[in-house]
Amino acid sequence: MPNRLLCTVFDEMRQCVKTSNFSYLSGLIEEAQSLGNRMESYLYEMKDYERLHREIRDLKTKRKKLEKEIGEFEAQKPD
Fold this sequence. Notes:
Helices cover 84% and strands 0% of the residues. It is mainly α.
């Protein structure tokens, strides 16, 4: 099933109520649950990516600072 949207599943659930045909409602509920779980999982992944990018940026800043300190220390070291 190519890229079904949660809203489409909800529309089909509304159609069940309009026609009073609830024979496939159980399957639609399961599909909605599955799509919701996938969406929630993706949101958590995006939050983790943002956190990792922040940590990488901070570590790069610290590395540059340490490299600068090392350079200054080596410049001061007597030969």
